[in-house]
Amino acid sequence: MTKQISSILIANRGEIALRIIRACRELDIKSVSIYSDEDTRSIHVKRADAAYHIGPAAPSQSYLNMNKIIEVALSAGVDAIHPGYGFLSENETFSELCEKNNIIFIGPKSVAMDLTGDKMKCKRIMKEAEVPTVPGSEGVIEDVEKAVQIANDAKYPVLLKSAFGGGGRGIRLAKDEKELRDEFEMASAESKAAFGKAALFVEKFLEKIRHIEFQLVRDSHGNTRHLFERECSIQRRHQKLIEMSPSPIMTPEKRDEIGEIAKRAADAVDYLNAGTAEFLCDPDGNFYFIEINSRLQVEHPVTELVTGIDLVKLQISIANGEAIPFKQNDLKLTGSAIECRINAEDPFYDFAPSVGKVPDCNLPYGPGIRVDTYLYPGCTVSGFYDSLTAKLISWGATFDEARRRMRNALDEFVIEGINTTIPLYKTIMNDKYFISGELSTDYLDRYSMIQKMKDEQKALNSDLQKKLLPAVSSAILQSDFIKKNNTSENNTSNSWKFGGLNC
């Protein structure tokens, strides 16, 4: 590395921008924020050492405007750009643009990002590296007839997935040939709209599976480490809702085995910086590699709490050309951590978006509680961006302690003006299947968690009405008493008045 990082432009917004700003402050690095018209009053604008207006509210004209961001970075004279997650964080063109302008991109090189971003290329490389993968097509499928043929060989149900997808987008389930034909065109269109490319592949759908990822870091000296696993099985439409570490099913032996496979996957694509190797685990305990997420993950605080390692600061040091300062055997997994993604969505009405002003909010705190958020009293939750408003993370010496702390923190967490996913998480924290670790990616449907949440809320409202009934009855009786006395000809107040006492 020809230069040390002394200033970083954060090509993102919200809580992740604040997270990176805090890391910069600890390292005495100047932080530079960018903001759209929608974010002029956002906290990340105020907390950074400098802030630059980037464009209109629409992401395509602001946070996704690569040329404008590079222009601002050059104008501000920064050494590096941290993309956070989402937006341009996994865009190889943006990474390459940074490289061409002699700006350090805090993440993998564009070549590695291109490999990890193309699931078919990545799958072929993983097979060569003897990393187990999910059965399915060997390459991109452009014709529905070929997709039908592969699906028949793999046996239904199958998934249609975008070769360039991420975050659960561009994925369709087909249980038979008719569904496959119906979904093929829709999946192609969705992939093209989200990623600019319509390339699909077919993959065997594994039922009652867990989603488990391993946190990876790799430096420019060829050192690769895994920072243990995170269980990410509680999802809705392939979007993670709750993450935890350690996984309820992981043994030390299995952790070492899959951790070494994850490291082999990172080495195979010459990965640099922080990322995750994503796996599916079937009921028999078999692990299948599905992809490398080439960025910092939303759920990285879970790993930070069980390892004591600041992943953002580690990202910056690796981008500086420094070697990872610890050996694999130095790492220890301490306690248990859980993260709930507090999304601005209404779980009572099919997770409808909920946006607008937040008149007030109460953030929970206490032993083992961490809140990463951009919320403050009077802020606005915008409809232009992702629904994530906060990340609530709990740590405990045991899983049960972390769960109880999370449950209590959810009770304390109040966000006025919008609906959030908090009620659903309250139900899950007390669910017997969650407590016993019986998790799978279809957890919400398998155990009817949405209906359980609604039933609990209905019972809560009924109890509240019963408690309020005596108070309401008393108020009505008192009101009637006052009215009767006020209409009496010989009431006390009139006597006082006529007696000259009301002066």
Describe this protein's structure.
This protein is α+β, with helices and mostly antiparallel strands and 503 residues long. The protein is built from 17 helices and 22 strands. Strands 13-12-9-10-11-14-21-19 form an eight-stranded antiparallel beta sheet, with helices on both faces. A five-stranded parallel beta sheet has the order 3-2-1-4-5. Strand 12 and strand 13 form a beta hairpin. Residues 488-503 have low confidence and may be disordered.
**Looking across the biggest beta sheet, what order are the strands in?**
13-12-9-10-11-14-21-19
Distance between the termini: 87 Å
Unreliable stretches (pLDDT < 50, length at least 5) are 488-503
Could you report the average pLDDT, rounded to the nearest whole number? Answer: 91
Largest sheet: 8 strands, antiparallel
How many strands appear in the DSSP assignment? 22
